[in-house]
Protein backbone atom coordinates (compact mmCIF):
# COMPACT_ATOMS: atom_id res chain seq x y z
CA UNK A 1 0.00 0.00 0.00
CA UNK A 2 1.27 3.45 -0.91
CA UNK A 3 1.76 5.90 1.94
CA UNK A 4 -0.46 8.98 1.75
CA UNK A 5 1.21 12.37 2.23
CA UNK A 6 -0.48 15.73 2.68
CA UNK A 7 1.91 18.68 2.42
CA UNK A 8 0.37 21.82 3.95
CA UNK A 9 1.72 25.36 3.60
CA UNK A 10 0.42 28.89 3.30
CA UNK A 11 3.04 31.63 3.05
CA UNK A 12 5.80 32.55 0.59
CA UNK A 13 8.74 31.15 2.58
CA UNK A 14 6.97 27.88 3.39
CA UNK A 15 6.16 27.44 -0.31
CA UNK A 16 9.77 28.05 -1.36
CA UNK A 17 11.07 25.60 1.21
CA UNK A 18 8.39 22.92 0.67
CA UNK A 19 8.40 23.02 -3.15
CA UNK A 20 11.51 20.83 -3.52
CA UNK A 21 10.05 18.34 -1.04
CA UNK A 22 6.84 18.07 -3.06
CA UNK A 23 8.93 17.47 -6.18
CA UNK A 24 10.98 14.79 -4.45
CA UNK A 25 7.84 12.96 -3.29
CA UNK A 26 6.36 13.20 -6.79
CA UNK A 27 9.48 11.52 -8.20
CA UNK A 28 8.69 8.64 -5.80
CA UNK A 29 5.09 8.07 -6.88
CA UNK A 30 5.56 4.31 -6.74
CA UNK A 31 5.79 4.56 -2.94
CA UNK A 32 3.67 7.62 -2.13
CA UNK A 33 0.44 9.35 -3.01
CA UNK A 34 1.21 13.02 -2.35
CA UNK A 35 -1.22 15.92 -2.29
CA UNK A 36 -0.66 19.63 -1.68
CA UNK A 37 -2.95 21.72 0.51
CA UNK A 38 -2.48 25.48 0.69
CA UNK A 39 -4.16 27.52 3.40
CA UNK A 40 -3.35 30.60 1.26
CA UNK A 41 -2.46 32.54 4.40
CA UNK A 42 -0.66 34.56 1.70
CA UNK A 43 -2.20 34.98 -1.75
CA UNK A 44 -0.19 36.92 -4.37
CA UNK A 45 3.13 36.18 -2.68
CA UNK A 46 2.28 32.47 -2.51
CA UNK A 47 0.97 32.24 -6.06
CA UNK A 48 4.25 33.72 -7.38
CA UNK A 49 6.12 30.78 -5.83
CA UNK A 50 3.64 28.15 -7.03
CA UNK A 51 4.05 29.49 -10.57
CA UNK A 52 7.83 29.37 -10.52
CA UNK A 53 8.00 25.85 -9.07
CA UNK A 54 5.12 24.71 -11.34
CA UNK A 55 3.01 23.38 -8.47
CA UNK A 56 -0.77 22.97 -8.57
CA UNK A 57 -2.45 22.62 -5.19
CA UNK A 58 -4.98 19.82 -4.70
CA UNK A 59 -6.75 21.84 -2.00
CA UNK A 60 -6.81 25.66 -1.87
CA UNK A 61 -8.41 27.01 1.32
CA UNK A 62 -8.10 30.60 0.05
CA UNK A 63 -8.06 32.06 3.58
CA UNK A 64 -6.10 35.33 3.25
CA UNK A 65 -7.93 38.48 4.33
CA UNK A 66 -6.51 42.02 4.24
CA UNK A 67 -4.66 42.85 7.47
CA UNK A 68 -5.76 39.53 8.96
CA UNK A 69 -5.41 38.79 12.67
CA UNK A 70 -3.88 35.79 14.34
CA UNK A 71 -7.06 34.77 16.17
CA UNK A 72 -9.36 34.30 13.19
CA UNK A 73 -6.60 33.01 10.92
CA UNK A 74 -5.73 30.26 13.42
CA UNK A 75 -9.37 29.29 13.89
CA UNK A 76 -10.09 29.29 10.15
CA UNK A 77 -7.10 27.06 9.39
CA UNK A 78 -8.04 24.45 12.01
CA UNK A 79 -11.73 24.42 11.06
CA UNK A 80 -11.04 24.52 7.33
CA UNK A 81 -8.64 21.59 7.44
CA UNK A 82 -11.16 19.21 9.05
CA UNK A 83 -13.04 18.23 5.86
CA UNK A 84 -9.80 18.01 3.85
CA UNK A 85 -8.17 15.68 6.37
CA UNK A 86 -11.36 13.62 6.61
CA UNK A 87 -11.61 13.31 2.82
CA UNK A 88 -7.98 12.45 2.03
CA UNK A 89 -7.09 10.63 5.27
CA UNK A 90 -3.31 11.17 5.02
CA UNK A 91 -0.89 8.91 6.87
CA UNK A 92 1.63 11.73 7.09
CA UNK A 93 1.10 15.49 7.22
CA UNK A 94 4.08 17.75 6.53
CA UNK A 95 4.32 21.26 7.93
CA UNK A 96 7.18 23.72 7.68
CA UNK A 97 8.82 26.13 10.07
CA UNK A 98 6.95 28.55 12.31
CA UNK A 99 4.00 30.33 10.74
CA UNK A 100 0.38 30.35 11.89
CA UNK A 101 -0.31 27.85 9.10
CA UNK A 102 2.38 25.57 10.53
CA UNK A 103 1.10 25.66 14.09
CA UNK A 104 -2.62 25.43 13.27
CA UNK A 105 -2.13 22.70 10.63
CA UNK A 106 -0.09 20.60 13.04
CA UNK A 107 -2.90 20.79 15.61
CA UNK A 108 -5.50 19.82 12.97
CA UNK A 109 -3.32 16.97 11.68
CA UNK A 110 -2.83 15.68 15.22
CA UNK A 111 -6.62 15.71 15.79
CA UNK A 112 -7.05 13.71 12.57
CA UNK A 113 -4.69 10.97 13.75
CA UNK A 114 -2.09 11.53 11.01
CA UNK A 115 1.62 11.47 11.85
CA UNK A 116 2.97 15.01 11.89
CA UNK A 117 6.31 15.65 10.17
CA UNK A 118 7.97 18.98 10.95
CA UNK A 119 10.36 20.32 8.35
CA UNK A 120 12.87 22.91 9.63
CA UNK A 121 12.42 21.73 13.20
CA UNK A 122 14.20 22.77 16.37
CA UNK A 123 15.15 26.40 15.72
CA UNK A 124 14.83 28.45 18.90
CA UNK A 125 15.56 31.96 20.17
CA UNK A 126 14.27 31.03 23.66
CA UNK A 127 12.41 34.35 23.66
CA UNK A 128 8.70 33.78 23.15
CA UNK A 129 8.12 37.37 21.98
CA UNK A 130 10.85 37.41 19.31
CA UNK A 131 10.13 36.44 16.68
CA UNK A 132 6.45 36.92 17.52
CA UNK A 133 4.45 34.72 17.27
CA UNK A 134 6.84 32.39 15.43
CA UNK A 135 8.94 31.21 18.40
CA UNK A 136 5.83 29.84 20.10
CA UNK A 137 4.43 28.49 16.81
CA UNK A 138 7.61 26.50 16.29
CA UNK A 139 7.69 25.16 19.86
CA UNK A 140 4.03 24.11 19.75
CA UNK A 141 4.62 22.34 16.43
CA UNK A 142 7.72 20.67 17.88
CA UNK A 143 5.75 19.29 20.79
CA UNK A 144 3.06 17.89 18.45
CA UNK A 145 5.31 16.49 15.72
CA UNK A 146 6.12 12.78 15.43
CA UNK A 147 9.14 13.30 13.17
CA UNK A 148 11.49 16.29 13.21
CA UNK A 149 13.67 17.28 10.26
CA UNK A 150 16.30 19.65 11.62
CA UNK A 151 18.47 21.77 9.34
CA UNK A 152 21.57 21.68 11.60
CA UNK A 153 23.08 19.90 14.60
CA UNK A 154 22.32 23.03 16.68
CA UNK A 155 18.61 22.72 15.97
CA UNK A 156 18.74 18.97 16.67
CA UNK A 157 20.36 19.67 20.05
CA UNK A 158 17.58 22.10 20.94
CA UNK A 159 15.08 19.27 20.42
CA UNK A 160 17.16 16.77 22.39
CA UNK A 161 17.17 19.28 25.26
CA UNK A 162 13.36 19.19 25.11
CA UNK A 163 13.50 15.40 25.60
CA UNK A 164 12.55 14.53 22.04
CA UNK A 165 13.90 11.10 21.18
CA UNK A 166 16.91 11.18 18.84
CA UNK A 167 15.42 8.35 16.75
CA UNK A 168 12.67 10.75 15.66
CA UNK A 169 15.04 13.54 14.61
CA UNK A 170 16.96 13.66 11.34
CA UNK A 171 19.50 16.37 10.48
CA UNK A 172 18.92 17.13 6.81
CA UNK A 173 20.25 20.61 6.04
CA UNK A 174 17.71 23.25 5.12
CA UNK A 175 15.42 22.63 2.15
CA UNK A 176 15.99 26.30 1.22
CA UNK A 177 19.33 25.23 -0.28
CA UNK A 178 17.51 22.58 -2.36
CA UNK A 179 15.19 25.39 -3.56
CA UNK A 180 18.08 27.72 -4.31
CA UNK A 181 19.83 25.05 -6.39
CA UNK A 182 16.60 24.28 -8.27
CA UNK A 183 16.21 27.98 -9.00
CA UNK A 184 19.78 28.46 -10.20
CA UNK A 185 19.50 25.40 -12.50
CA UNK A 186 16.13 26.50 -13.93
CA UNK A 187 17.27 30.09 -14.49
CA UNK A 188 20.42 28.90 -16.28
CA UNK A 189 18.49 26.94 -18.89
CA UNK A 190 18.46 28.58 -22.32
CA UNK A 191 14.65 28.56 -22.59
CA UNK A 192 14.03 30.28 -19.24
CA UNK A 193 12.86 33.89 -19.22
CA UNK A 194 11.65 35.78 -16.18
CA UNK A 195 9.95 39.10 -16.85
CA UNK A 196 10.55 40.33 -13.32
CA UNK A 197 14.30 39.75 -13.51
CA UNK A 198 14.33 41.80 -16.73
CA UNK A 199 12.25 44.48 -15.01
CA UNK A 200 14.65 44.91 -12.08
CA UNK A 201 17.64 44.90 -14.46
CA UNK A 202 15.97 47.87 -16.17
CA UNK A 203 15.54 49.81 -12.91
CA UNK A 204 19.10 49.44 -11.62
CA UNK A 205 22.14 51.56 -12.39
CA UNK A 206 25.01 49.10 -13.03
CA UNK A 207 27.56 51.69 -11.86
CA UNK A 208 26.13 51.96 -8.33
CA UNK A 209 26.65 49.44 -5.54
CA UNK A 210 23.43 47.67 -4.64
CA UNK A 211 21.89 47.31 -1.19
CA UNK A 212 18.98 44.87 -1.08
CA UNK A 213 16.41 45.34 1.71
CA UNK A 214 13.45 43.27 2.94
CA UNK A 215 11.45 43.45 6.16
CA UNK A 216 8.14 42.32 7.57
CA UNK A 217 8.36 41.01 11.15
CA UNK A 218 5.38 41.70 13.38
CA UNK A 219 7.55 42.68 16.36
CA UNK A 220 9.06 45.44 14.17
CA UNK A 221 5.68 46.93 13.16
CA UNK A 222 5.16 50.51 14.37
CA UNK A 223 8.24 52.31 15.72
CA UNK A 224 10.60 49.57 14.50
CA UNK A 225 9.66 50.19 10.86
CA UNK A 226 9.82 53.96 11.31
CA UNK A 227 13.40 53.55 12.63
CA UNK A 228 14.30 51.20 9.76
CA UNK A 229 12.96 53.62 7.13
CA UNK A 230 14.72 56.63 8.70
CA UNK A 231 17.96 54.65 8.66
CA UNK A 232 17.53 53.72 4.99
CA UNK A 233 16.82 57.35 4.11
CA UNK A 234 20.04 58.45 5.83
CA UNK A 235 22.10 55.67 4.18
CA UNK A 236 20.76 56.66 0.75
CA UNK A 237 21.51 60.33 1.31
CA UNK A 238 25.04 59.78 2.68
CA UNK A 239 26.01 57.27 -0.03
CA UNK A 240 25.00 58.65 -3.41
CA UNK A 241 27.23 56.04 -5.11
CA UNK A 242 24.86 53.31 -3.90
CA UNK A 243 21.27 52.37 -4.70
CA UNK A 244 18.81 50.59 -2.46
CA UNK A 245 16.23 48.19 -3.86
CA UNK A 246 13.43 47.19 -1.54
CA UNK A 247 10.68 44.72 -2.59
CA UNK A 248 8.08 45.79 -0.05
CA UNK A 249 6.09 43.07 1.72
CA UNK A 250 2.33 43.36 1.06
CA UNK A 251 1.41 43.59 4.75
CA UNK A 252 -0.30 47.01 5.13
CA UNK A 253 1.59 47.56 8.40
CA UNK A 254 4.77 47.46 6.32
CA UNK A 255 3.56 49.17 3.14
CA UNK A 256 2.35 52.32 4.89
CA UNK A 257 5.50 53.46 6.75
CA UNK A 258 7.79 52.34 3.92
CA UNK A 259 5.95 54.25 1.19
CA UNK A 260 5.22 57.25 3.46
CA UNK A 261 8.89 57.72 4.40
CA UNK A 262 10.82 56.44 1.38
CA UNK A 263 8.76 56.92 -1.77
CA UNK A 264 10.47 60.15 -2.87
CA UNK A 265 14.10 59.20 -2.25
CA UNK A 266 15.79 59.10 -5.66
CA UNK A 267 18.31 56.31 -4.99
CA UNK A 268 15.77 54.05 -3.23
CA UNK A 269 13.66 51.82 -5.51
CA UNK A 270 10.51 50.53 -3.83
CA UNK A 271 9.01 47.64 -5.78
CA UNK A 272 6.38 44.95 -5.19
CA UNK A 273 7.47 41.55 -3.88
CA UNK A 274 9.22 39.88 -6.79
CA UNK A 275 9.44 36.35 -8.14
CA UNK A 276 11.85 33.98 -6.45
CA UNK A 277 14.30 33.83 -9.42
CA UNK A 278 14.35 37.64 -9.63
CA UNK A 279 15.02 37.87 -5.91
CA UNK A 280 17.83 35.30 -6.15
CA UNK A 281 19.29 37.33 -9.02
CA UNK A 282 19.09 40.48 -6.87
CA UNK A 283 20.82 38.75 -3.95
CA UNK A 284 23.60 37.62 -6.28
CA UNK A 285 24.11 41.19 -7.55
CA UNK A 286 23.97 42.85 -4.10
CA UNK A 287 26.90 44.38 -2.33
CA UNK A 288 25.15 43.82 0.98
CA UNK A 289 21.71 42.82 2.28
CA UNK A 290 19.69 44.40 5.10
CA UNK A 291 16.76 42.26 6.24
CA UNK A 292 14.70 40.82 9.06
CA UNK A 293 13.84 37.72 7.02
CA UNK A 294 14.60 34.22 8.21
CA UNK A 295 15.03 32.70 4.76
CA UNK A 296 17.30 35.43 3.46
CA UNK A 297 19.64 34.84 6.45
CA UNK A 298 20.01 31.28 5.19
CA UNK A 299 20.37 31.99 1.47
CA UNK A 300 22.82 34.90 1.61
CA UNK A 301 25.78 33.06 3.21
CA UNK A 302 25.75 30.51 0.40
CA UNK A 303 25.98 33.42 -2.05
CA UNK A 304 28.80 35.05 -0.01
CA UNK A 305 26.79 38.19 0.80
CA UNK A 306 27.10 40.10 4.11
CA UNK A 307 23.78 40.43 5.92
CA UNK A 308 22.72 42.96 8.53
CA UNK A 309 19.73 41.51 10.37
CA UNK A 310 17.22 43.99 11.80
CA UNK A 311 16.43 41.85 14.82
CA UNK A 312 17.75 41.61 18.38
CA UNK A 313 17.89 37.83 18.38
CA UNK A 314 17.91 35.03 15.83
CA UNK A 315 16.95 31.37 15.80
CA UNK A 316 19.59 30.95 13.08
CA UNK A 317 22.89 31.41 14.96
CA UNK A 318 25.04 29.46 12.49
CA UNK A 319 25.77 32.33 10.09
CA UNK A 320 26.20 34.80 12.98
CA UNK A 321 28.83 32.46 14.46
CA UNK A 322 30.52 32.22 11.06
CA UNK A 323 30.63 36.03 10.82
CA UNK A 324 28.57 36.65 7.68
CA UNK A 325 25.41 37.74 9.52
CA UNK A 326 25.37 40.57 12.06
CA UNK A 327 22.41 41.48 14.27
CA UNK A 328 21.71 45.23 14.26
CA UNK A 329 18.16 45.37 15.70
CA UNK A 330 15.93 48.28 14.70
CA UNK A 331 18.07 51.06 16.13
CA UNK A 332 18.53 53.62 13.31
CA UNK A 333 22.03 54.66 14.36
CA UNK A 334 23.28 51.08 14.49
CA UNK A 335 21.80 50.21 11.09
CA UNK A 336 23.43 53.31 9.57
CA UNK A 337 26.82 52.85 11.24
CA UNK A 338 27.21 49.15 10.33
CA UNK A 339 26.05 49.79 6.76
CA UNK A 340 28.52 52.67 6.38
CA UNK A 341 31.27 50.46 7.79
CA UNK A 342 30.50 47.74 5.24
CA UNK A 343 30.46 50.34 2.44
CA UNK A 344 33.72 52.03 3.48
CA UNK A 345 35.90 49.49 5.29
CA UNK A 346 37.19 46.74 2.97
CA UNK A 347 38.69 44.64 5.75
CA UNK A 348 35.34 44.57 7.58
CA UNK A 349 33.51 43.88 4.30
CA UNK A 350 35.79 40.99 3.38
CA UNK A 351 35.45 39.45 6.85
CA UNK A 352 31.66 39.26 6.32
CA UNK A 353 31.53 38.17 2.70
CA UNK A 354 33.17 34.76 2.55
CA UNK A 355 31.21 31.94 0.99
CA UNK A 356 30.04 29.28 3.36
CA UNK A 357 27.13 27.00 3.73
CA UNK A 358 25.98 26.05 7.21
CA UNK A 359 22.55 25.06 5.90
CA UNK A 360 23.41 21.99 3.90
CA UNK A 361 24.23 20.83 0.40
CA UNK A 362 20.83 20.70 -1.29
CA UNK A 363 19.99 17.10 -0.36
CA UNK A 364 17.58 17.81 2.50
CA UNK A 365 14.50 16.66 0.59
CA UNK A 366 15.95 13.36 -0.58
CA UNK A 367 17.00 12.62 3.02
CA UNK A 368 13.44 13.29 4.24
CA UNK A 369 11.91 11.05 1.56
CA UNK A 370 14.36 8.24 2.32
CA UNK A 371 13.58 8.50 6.06
CA UNK A 372 9.80 8.31 5.49
CA UNK A 373 10.23 5.44 2.99
CA UNK A 374 11.86 3.34 5.69
CA UNK A 375 9.13 3.84 8.32
C1 LIG B 1 3.72 35.64 7.77
C2 LIG B 1 4.20 34.78 8.92
C3 LIG B 1 5.69 34.97 9.15
C4 LIG B 1 6.48 34.81 7.87
C5 LIG B 1 5.91 35.74 6.82
C6 LIG B 1 6.64 35.55 5.52
C7 LIG B 1 2.64 34.35 10.75
C8 LIG B 1 2.07 34.83 12.00
N1 LIG B 1 3.51 35.15 10.14
O1 LIG B 1 3.81 37.01 8.19
O2 LIG B 1 6.13 34.00 10.09
O3 LIG B 1 7.81 35.12 8.14
O4 LIG B 1 4.53 35.44 6.63
O5 LIG B 1 6.38 36.58 4.64
O6 LIG B 1 2.32 33.29 10.29
N2 LIG B 1 -0.62 40.12 2.37
C9 LIG B 1 -1.12 40.32 1.07
N3 LIG B 1 -0.76 39.42 0.10
C10 LIG B 1 0.07 38.38 0.32
C11 LIG B 1 0.59 38.22 1.62
C12 LIG B 1 0.22 39.08 2.63
O7 LIG B 1 -1.88 41.24 0.82
O8 LIG B 1 0.34 37.61 -0.61
C13 LIG B 1 -1.04 41.06 3.44
C14 LIG B 1 -2.49 40.83 3.86
O9 LIG B 1 -3.09 42.05 4.18
C15 LIG B 1 -2.32 39.96 5.11
C16 LIG B 1 -1.09 40.58 5.71
O10 LIG B 1 -0.25 40.84 4.60
O11 LIG B 1 -3.45 39.98 5.96
C17 LIG B 1 -0.38 39.77 6.75
O12 LIG B 1 -0.14 38.44 6.34
P1 LIG B 1 0.22 37.31 7.45
O13 LIG B 1 0.48 36.03 6.75
O14 LIG B 1 -0.81 37.31 8.51
O15 LIG B 1 1.51 37.86 8.12
P2 LIG B 1 2.94 38.15 7.53
O16 LIG B 1 3.36 39.41 8.17
O17 LIG B 1 2.95 38.02 6.06
N1 LIG C 1 11.74 36.38 -1.51
C1 LIG C 1 11.16 36.42 -2.79
N2 LIG C 1 10.73 37.63 -3.28
C2 LIG C 1 10.85 38.79 -2.58
C3 LIG C 1 11.45 38.73 -1.28
C4 LIG C 1 11.86 37.50 -0.78
O1 LIG C 1 11.03 35.39 -3.45
O2 LIG C 1 10.44 39.85 -3.07
C5 LIG C 1 12.14 35.07 -0.95
C6 LIG C 1 13.53 34.96 -0.36
O3 LIG C 1 14.47 34.52 -1.33
C7 LIG C 1 13.34 33.93 0.76
C8 LIG C 1 11.91 34.11 1.17
O4 LIG C 1 11.26 34.83 0.15
O5 LIG C 1 13.48 32.60 0.27
C9 LIG C 1 11.82 34.85 2.48
O6 LIG C 1 10.50 35.18 2.76
P1 LIG C 1 10.09 36.17 3.93
O7 LIG C 1 11.21 37.10 4.21
O8 LIG C 1 8.77 36.73 3.55
O9 LIG C 1 9.81 35.19 5.16
P2 LIG C 1 10.76 34.57 6.30
O10 LIG C 1 11.86 33.83 5.64
O11 LIG C 1 11.21 35.69 7.16
O12 LIG C 1 9.83 33.67 7.05
Structural commentary:
This protein is an alpha/beta fold and 375 residues long. The chain folds into 2 domains: 186 residues, 3-Layer(aba) Sandwich (Rossmann fold), CATH 3.40.50.2000; 159 residues, Glycogen Phosphorylase B (Rossmann fold). Helices cover 49% and strands 16% of the residues. The strands form 2 sheets. It has a 7-stranded parallel sheet with strand order 3-2-1-4-5-6-7, with helices on both faces. A 6-stranded parallel sheet has the order 10-9-8-11-12-13, with helices on both faces. α1 links the parallel β1 and β2. The longest helix is centred in the first third of the chain and has 19 residues. The protein binds uridine-diphosphate-N-acetylglucosamine and uridine-5'-diphosphate. Uridine-5'-diphosphate binds next to α1, α11 and α12.
Give the key terms.
single chain; 375 residues; alpha/beta; Rossmann fold; 2 domains; six-stranded parallel sheet; 49% helix; binds uridine-diphosphate-N-acetylglucosamine; binds uridine-5'-diphosphate
* Beta strand %: 15-25%
Rounded to an integer in angstroms, the radius of gyration calculated over CA atoms is 20 Å
Largest sheet: 7 strands, parallel
* Small molecules in complex: uridine-diphosphate-N-acetylglucosamine, uridine-5'-diphosphate
What topology, given as strand order, has the largest sheet?
3-2-1-4-5-6-7
Number of domains: 2
The CATH topology of the largest domain corresponds to Rossmann fold
Name the shape in a single word.
globular
The helicity comes to 40-55%
Count of strand segments: 13
Q: What separation lies between the terminal Cα atoms?
A: 13 Å
Helix-strand sequence: EHEHEHEHEHEHEHHEHEHEHEHEHEHHH
- Tally of DSSP helical segments: 16
The CATH architecture of the largest domain can be given as 3-Layer(aba) Sandwich
Derived structural class: alpha/beta
Q: List segments where confidence is low: pLDDT < 50 over at least 5 consecutive residues.
A: none
Tell me the CATH superfamily of the largest domain: Glycogen Phosphorylase B
Overall mean pLDDT stands at: 97
CATH class of the largest domain: Alpha Beta
